[in-house]
């Protein structure tokens, strides 16, 4: 991973905001800027912080991770903290002579800020930077797009390898475990999020953890999964059923599919997230199921499976070429189940490029 261009962009933002340095505490931003993959245990066990100034880049970590850090964080100086991370950050900041220091107020422990304030004193001003690095990550470069496409291809391959094995009587959990195994077999480094297999009435819950419930013929089965490859995520949802679908399932599936197709045909750069969401939501509302589409149309995907931009009724953020987003309309009916169909797409100059290769409708015996 070549992070020099990313550091240059960050340093340009530091100059714009008149910051001498910034402390990076969010694990995804740390990876994006340094390539370091140390394992965190949120919310309070970090594998490392970054301290980046105009001239220096330092990874503050423990001796436990220092060898890995030296291998992965090319171009970074490794600082082995002797005590907690905040005191390590403070030691580096003192060494750099930083006076105006940014911090990630959305991803820092309150205790760490107190320690920085007490250790550095009034000579250093701590400045919250909000989504500074997240905003830099929104548009993907070609290397990132290649890795996301690879992760999606692995996800598609694993899904298609397992879905035709489905039989009545298999449990949701059994299917989820088989999908996770298939992801690794197809080349994934892991899962982007816990795999969801929601059968029958469980499909009415958009975020669902599989249970021992046995799947049955004729009912909707919502499967949501994604691979991680070289630190980049994919996301795929398909709704399938075994045997013959009844009239209600066919009708609702058709509505959701039409909503997905309307969004994929209509999304353009410059359109806001709200306008993109509206393309699909209007289809579902016209069919009489507006109240059953209970989430946003989609979200950005990159080193995190949920990141900017948002395709939601509340988003006025314009879409731009190079952004990667999901398009995932759904209808959820308590007591019956749900249907969601999700593709992963890249925003291009003239529309969207669909990365997902799994058919939207699959006929399973």
Description:
This protein is an alpha+beta fold and 365 residues long. It folds into two domains: 4-137, Creatine Amidinohydrolase, Chain A, domain 1; 142-354, Creatinase/methionine aminopeptidase superfamily (Creatine Amidinohydrolase, Alpha-Beta Complex), CATH 3.90.230.10. The protein has helices spanning 4-16, 27-34, 66-72, 85-96, 110-120, 132-137, 142-163, 172-186, 247-266, 273-286, and strands at 21-24, 49-53, 57-61, 77-80, 100-103, 125-128, 190-191, 196-199, 221-225, 227-229, 232-233, 236-240, 298-300, 307-311, 324-327, 330-333, 337-340, 343-348, 351-354. Strand 18 and strand 19 form a beta hairpin. The two termini are 44 Å apart.
Using brief descriptors, characterize the structure shown.
365 residues; alpha+beta; Creatine Amidinohydrolase, Chain A, domain 1; Creatine Amidinohydrolase; three-stranded antiparallel beta sheet; 10 helices; 35% helix
Blueprint (SSEs and pairs):
Blueprint: H1 4-16, E1 21-24, H2 27-34, E2 49-53, E3 57-61, H3 66-72, E4 77-80, H4 85-96, E5 100-103, H5 110-120, E6 125-128, H6 132-137, H7 142-163, H8 172-186, E7 190-191, E8 196-199, E9 221-225, E10 227-229, E11 232-233, E12 236-240, H9 247-266, H10 273-286, E13 298-300, E14 307-311, E15 324-327, E16 330-333, E17 337-340, E18 343-348, E19 351-354
Parallel strand pairs: 1-5, 3-4, 5-6
Antiparallel strand pairs: 1-2, 2-3, 7-10, 8-9, 9-12, 10-11, 13-14, 15-18, 16-17, 18-19
Helix pairs in contact: 4-5, 7-8, 9-10
